[in-house]
């Protein structure tokens, strides 16, 4: 039986990795993929291991998680190659016939393992990407991130503020300009369809509906996602109308993290509609929202001026967010669990 081996960090997995696996599988009956991780890395090894299992469902591909805290470069340890030989052989289910890599370490490692090295696209000419590039600028290299794991790399930007400050208008415009999705205020659609007036019992289904909408819309977003309000807003209105609290909502309103927040000021005229009734409390509501942002430990970018000025400020800000590296919080168990809808 021809048994091939691939090893790497897959930090994160990208389409170059998938190309390597496809080409390797053509040349061996069974293939083992070792996902090697270190505790210090900001995308947990457990998550990368799950990603690789999802991306490689072939029953003849063994995806194995390697947790050994091994040295990363030959100069790090005098017995570097022997340490890795022991790790690889102890994790490999079969004797290794061929080692497949897109790296220069392939030849010396194959020599240590006593197997053949088959290089695949060493020059990265076919798929010019690296995991480092994706970590440093995921949106710039969006096309190289496999579709199933893209939701973890979407940068979410929340628009927050009092009634009638242009959140919906701006969210729509930004989504159009950046060719991606936006999430409407779930409460508005929910209450417009409700035959009876708003009640305190409406707030939990509104909160869950909004969060579910965020999770689902993230799956098809093009690197960015704009949220017309979020659960922090729901919490503020629950306190304002009913002086009440829902633990499920409070935990998520204060705990969920986003890549950025745009806070829209009250310096444009208030416009009445059937769901707005706090026109005389705009100053007070602004204070409530700012206090909520402080409680949730969220930084924000203040957007003010007329509609064109707001749009210009927001676009400049979003362009800065686009260039930022991956957000470590996006990969934590806490944030993943907070976005689960029971």
TrEMBL record:
The keyword Kinase applies. It comes from the Bacteria. Residues 6-136 form the Cytidyltransferase-like domain. Keywords: Kinase, Transferase. One of its GO terms (molecular function) is kinase activity. Transmembrane segments: none annotated. InterPro entries: Cyt_trans-like (IPR004821), NAD_biosynth-regulator (IPR052735), NadR/Ttd14_AAA_dom (IPR038727), P-loop_NTPase (IPR027417), Rossmann-like_a/b/a_fold (IPR014729). Residues 156-310 form the NadR/Ttd14 AAA domain. PANTHER family: NADR_TTD14 AAA DOMAIN-CONTAINING PROTEIN, TRIFUNCTIONAL NAD BIOSYNTHESIS/REGULATOR PROTEIN NADR. NCBIfam families: cyt_tran_rel. This is NAD metabolism ATPase/kinase. The lineage of its organism: Bacteria, Pseudomonadati, Spirochaetota, Spirochaetia, Leptospirales.
């Amino acid at each position: 039986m021809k048994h091939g081996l691939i090893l790497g960090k897959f930090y994160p997995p990208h389409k170059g990795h998938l190309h390597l696996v496809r080409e390797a599988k053509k040349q061996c009956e069974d293939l083992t993929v070792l996902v090697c991780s270190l505790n210090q890395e900001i995308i947990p090894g457990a998550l990368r291991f799950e990603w690789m299992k999802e991306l490689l469902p072939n029953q003849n591909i063994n995806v194995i998680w390697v947790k050994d805290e091994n040295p990363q470069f030959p100069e790090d340890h005098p017995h570097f190659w022997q340490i890795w030989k022991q790790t690889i052989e102890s994790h490999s289910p079969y004797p290794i016939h061929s080692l497949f890599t897109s790296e220069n370490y392939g030849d010396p490692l194959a020599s240590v393992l006593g197997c053949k090295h088959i290089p695949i696209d060493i020059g990265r000419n076919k798929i010019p990407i690296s995991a480092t590039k994706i970590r440093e600028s995921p949106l710039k290299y969006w096309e190289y991130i496999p579709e199933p794991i893209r939701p973890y790399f979407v940068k979410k930007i929340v628009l927050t503020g009092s009634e009638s400050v242009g959140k919906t208008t701006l969210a729509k415009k930004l989504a159009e300009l950046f060719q991606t999705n936006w999430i409407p205020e779930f409460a508005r659609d929910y209450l417009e369809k409700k035959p009876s007036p708003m009640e305190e019992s409406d707030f939990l289904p509104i909160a869950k509906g909004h969060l579910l909408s965020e999770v689902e819309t993230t799956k098809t977003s093009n690197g960015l996602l704009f949220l017309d309000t979020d659960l922090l807003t729901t919490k503020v209105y629950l306190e304002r109308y009913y002086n009440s609290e829902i633990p499920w909502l409070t935990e998520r309103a204060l705990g969920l993290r986003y890549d950025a927040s745009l806070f829209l000021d009250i310096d444009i005229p208030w416009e009445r509609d059937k769901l707005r009734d706090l026109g005389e409390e705009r100053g007070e509501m602004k204070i409530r929202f700012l206090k909520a942002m402080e409680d949730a430990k969220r930084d924000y970018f203040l957007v003010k001026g007329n509609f064109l000025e707001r749009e210009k400020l927001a676009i400049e800000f979003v362009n800065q967010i686009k260039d930022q590296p991956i957000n470590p919080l996006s990969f934590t168990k806490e944030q993943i669990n907070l976005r689960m809808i029971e």
